[in-house]
Batch of 3 targets.
Target 1
Amino acid sequence: MKIETELRDDHQMKIVAEFEADILEKYKHQAARKIATRAKIPGFRPGKAPYDVILRLYGEEAIAEEAKGLLVDDTYPAILDEAKVNPAAPGSLEEISETDPIKATFLVPLEPTVDLGDYKSLRKKYSVKAVTEKQVNEFIERMRKNFATAEPSTAPAKEGDLVALKLDAKLTQPVDDEKPEVLKESPVQVVIGENDPEENDFPYAGFGDNLIGLKEGEEKTFTYIYPEDSKYDRLRGKEVEFHALIESIKTLTLPELNDEFAQSVGGNIEDMQNLRDVVKTQLEDQAKEEYDRGYFDELIEKLLKSAKIAYAPQTLDHEMEHVVESITQDLAQQHMELDTYLKTIKKEKTAWMESDVKPAAQKRLERSLVLDELAKLEKIEVGNEELQNEFNQMINEMQYSVDPKELKKELKSERFANALAMEAATRLLNRKVLDCLKDIATGKAEEKAAEPVTEAEGEKPAKKSTKKAAAAEIAEPAAEEMPVKAKKTVKKAAADEESAETAAPKTTKAKKSDTK
């Protein structure tokens, strides 16, 4: 067998395999038996009709076509080995000749390649803004409002009052068969004038101002146009008509800010100073999380600009499928189907896939590829002990959102244990990669490299391994005791593990066409 290869611009390998003369004859009898098993031939049981009968009934051409398929399936693994190709997904048979010797042309998508360039020269200062006393005071004031006492009032609603109402809402201009109803007699409570976007953004900031002057039992209808960047996807750019029925009005009396109030908050708070310290720490954590998001987004964008990335179209198609799956699940939580969503944004699915899904998938794929490459170059590994801690942390987090009885059902699920361990490993590895990226950008990596490496006498280094190997080691004993239930991200991890098998030759998807 002769092999010729050609690397295409779309990161696929064109492979032309030329087989030995008369090789097809070896497969014709197998092909005839295969045809016989599918066909109903009078006088013969399935698969028992002799070759000459199949030849007379179906002809030489039909047998030859079946034989070519068997030939390709049988020799494809060897073709990939000889061509030294590591496929990212199943290859396709583009054409196979009628002539002898037979030539088969395959198109095989290759594994992605990444060259990060001079990534060690990447620099960006890391500086999280300090939390101010004003921010601490504002947060405590919001807590104070949550502990306010409410007294019924018969006066018209005013700023600072707590108003309970029944709210109807509908789209003023629904699209096609889009349901106009948004809310139907929904119970809503609003503190008028409290326009803190973190605490009072439903139905929208400033909503309560429409209720000023109304009394219990009175009604009012008004409209609002949601901005294009609204957090409510369905309502972006839409005008909504609201109808409010006032059910009760209460005047709020705020508690005094003293040690007694601090203790009433809970969490073993002792006094106001202790409360202020706890609030400040919480705000600092939030500020760091928000800063990190923007900081690493910018660093990764810089990494992407200097990197050279190549991947086959099938790799991007696979990522697009994940994006669509994620969007569909998010829409389902809003009780909306994908087709309905597409109608609301006035896009055909094909156009939406190209304009919205493809860019999102491309960004997600390329970010993942450069971070994976950074982990390889920097030899970032997952230690079994730290993975075990991460694994336990995930279990603890899930216990707050899953019924204990449901958790027990997953106790002996080895498949789930592996998926959860892989998710823990991915989360841990991502965090370590980002820490490494920050060290490089801030110059700490150079400082660490300059420090002399010493090892305590008799001390053994912590055991480390690849993410997959470490995950398998952690998952094995956990399958017996783990009280957890799979979340969407964990299920996705399991699905991704299965998808790795698509590169196996036995799943080759061949498109057959003849050349003369």
Target 2
Amino acid sequence: MNYDPYDLTQHAPRSPRVRIGGMVILARMLDKCRADLKGKVGDYEYGCSL
């Protein structure tokens, strides 16, 4: 079975505490963006009012 790390319909994105380049939340944001590009964001909504 192939595992697609950007298919958020099957599993949750990375923890917001995972750091990339010393920045928190970046890994989770990238997971959500990549899943959105593939159309597999699932029930995750950004909910950002900016």
Target 3
Amino acid sequence: MLVEAINHEAATRPLPYNFHETLVASQRVNWRIDDIIGPDRQLDFTKPFMPESLAHTGFLDFLTADEKLVLNQIKGHT
């Protein structure tokens, strides 16, 4: 009974944001990689994009080193 009451209250409570505010915020933080590294530099795809402490790919023993590198870069993009 208590769980149902909590779920009902959460479902009927208005959201603390709206679509317009979310859209405006997303446009404010819109950026491109050139804004960060500059248009004259290239990403080095032979190196990881993130440190292992963030990527957590080292324990995946079923992946090759190259596959771990690609996964690190994918995680760095998302």
